[in-house]
């Protein structure tokens, strides 16, 4: 988008917000820098899109922007502060800065705000929830209700997510009840998915099924049934898994996830005939999986890895590291679980394939390139497979490193051989 040459603040504000809305986040930040270089002072309309673009690009200029808007008194505007709290909370999610540091900053801005609305409270609730700090989410929510602010649809998504990830079954059920009866917010698919996840983690599959059977079918989308399917896989309930998979197929026929989950479940039960049947079904329906990939951010550069990737400049070194990792975790007692082979891109259940899943290559590169003492942050586009999850936990232990793996579902903070997800995701 062209610069609004010779124009003033209003033209810049319009151009920045147009770029941000169009997803041209880098351009939005460039225009902001250019505007400031011309001596124009940002106002309360400039900053929300700039903060949002910065957060989405995982760049942490929030500190500098924060100082700027305090100086100019802009933090007094509710929507500016909301954008700032949200930007810090988002940064903590993507891990561009130390998660706890960003959450602290979000909290600082939040505490300094004179007025707050549902968006402000919700940003903080979601920020805590997504960083595995469920109890703090609940405490913020309690303050929100006490303050007289009305929680909305998104607030409850954050709250139920927090309950589910912190294993707070009773609190989750109580909030789910009260959202409609006390706050007049009708539960939607996101809330049902959280509840199924919450009950599934606690092993209460029957309760989850009762909840869904008694709910309006229109509110139950494929996400809800996939949450049930994941619970069935964990608790090895094949009959219910078939029912959940059939629902996903009806609602989202192109989704590969049910095939992968069913295949995992059957192979863990050693029901090879059923494994073959599910794979054949997947092939006959022409379903192919999105290829898995993982990435690591080192010194501001993103390094992307695919399974069996030989493309990286340091590929030979990385593969030697993978071999070393495999040997060291095996010595520590890690037994490869080849039943997870179809989770990722490896064609068959070969141990060789598992060792070269993209997340392991990314972790190996992290061990080589991230300075000792700093956490290794790895991102994955799909859910991490069970074998990689166990293997990377052991890697964190034997190498004495903190590894933070963000997969398509949640954060895994791995340290000393344990994971923040409690091995349920
Ligand atoms: Zn894997
Ligand atoms: Zn985990």
Write the layout of secondary structure elements.
Layout: H1 9-21, H2 25-37, H3 47-56, H4 62-71, H5 78-94, H6 99-112, H7 118-130, H8 134-147, H9 153-165, H10 169-181, H11 189-201, H12 205-213, H13 222-235, H14 238-251, H15 257-268, H16 272-284, E1 293-298, E2 301-306, H17 315-331, H18 351-355, H19 358-369, E3 376-380, H20 386-398, E4 403-406, E5 411-415, E6 418-419
Parallel strand pairs: 3-4
Antiparallel strand pairs: 1-2, 1-3, 4-5, 5-6
Helix pairs in contact: 1-2, 1-3, 2-3, 3-5, 5-6, 5-7, 6-7, 7-8, 7-9, 8-9, 9-10, 9-11, 10-11, 11-12, 11-13, 13-14, 13-15, 14-15, 15-16, 17-19, 17-20
The structure holds zinc ion (2 copies).
One zinc ion binds next to loops.
Features:
20 helices, 425 residues, repeat, E_motif, six-stranded mixed sheet, alpha+beta, DYW domain-containing protein, TPR-like_helical_dom_sf, binds zinc ion, transit peptide
């Amino acid at each position: 988008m062209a610069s609004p040459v010779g124009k003033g603040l209003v033209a810049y504000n319009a151009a920045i917000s147009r770029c941000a809305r169009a997803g041209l986040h880098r351009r939005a930040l460039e225009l902001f820098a250019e505007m400031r270089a011309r001596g124009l002072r940002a106002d309360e309309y400039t900053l929300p899109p700039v903060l949002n673009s910065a957060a989405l690009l995982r760049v942490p200029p929030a500190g500098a922007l924060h100082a700027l808007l305090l100086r100019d008194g802009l933090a007094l505007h509710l929507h500016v502060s909301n954008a700032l709290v949200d930007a810090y909370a988002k940064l903590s999610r993507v891990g561009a800065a130390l998660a706890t540091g960003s959450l602290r900053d979000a909290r600082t801005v939040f505490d300094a705000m004179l007025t707050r609305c549902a968006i402000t409270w919700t940003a903080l609730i979601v920020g805590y929830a997504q960083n595995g700090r469920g109890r703090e989410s609940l405490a913020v929510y309690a303050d929100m209700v006490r303050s007289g602010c009305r929680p909305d649809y998104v607030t409850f998504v954050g709250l139920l997510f927090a309950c589910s990830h912190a294993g707070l079954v009773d609190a989750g059920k109580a909030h789910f009840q009260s959202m409609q009866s006390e706050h007049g917010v009708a539960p939607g698919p996101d809330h049902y998915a959280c509840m199924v996840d919450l009950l599934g983690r606690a092993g209460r599959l029957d309760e989850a099924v009762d909840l869904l059977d008694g709910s309006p079918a229109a509110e139950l989308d494929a996400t809800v049934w996939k949450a049930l399917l994941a619970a069935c896989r964990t608790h090895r309930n094949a009959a219910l898994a078939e029912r959940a998979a059939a629902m996903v197929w009806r609602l989202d026929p192109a989704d590969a996830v049910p095939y992968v989950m069913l295949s995992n479940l059957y192979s863990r039960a050693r029901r090879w005939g059923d494994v073959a049947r599910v794979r054949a079904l997947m092939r006959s329906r022409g379903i192919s999986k999105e290829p898995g990939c993982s990435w690591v951010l080192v010194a501001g550069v993103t390094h992307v890895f695919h399974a069996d990737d030989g493309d990286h400049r340091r590929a030979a070194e990385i593969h030697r590291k993978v071999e070393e990792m495999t040997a060291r975790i095996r010595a520590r007692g890690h037994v490869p679980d080849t039943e997870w082979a179809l989770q990722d891109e490896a064609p068959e259940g070969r141990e060789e394939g598992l060792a070269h899943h993209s997340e392991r290559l990314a972790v190996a590169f992290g061990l080589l390139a991230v300075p000792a003492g700093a956490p290794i942050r790895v991102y994955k586009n799909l859910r991490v497979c069970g074998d990689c999850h166990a293997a990377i936990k052991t890697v964190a232990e034997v190498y004495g490193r903190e590894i933070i793996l963000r997969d398509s579902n949640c954060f895994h903070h791995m340290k000393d051989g344990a994971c923040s997800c409690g091995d349920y995701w």
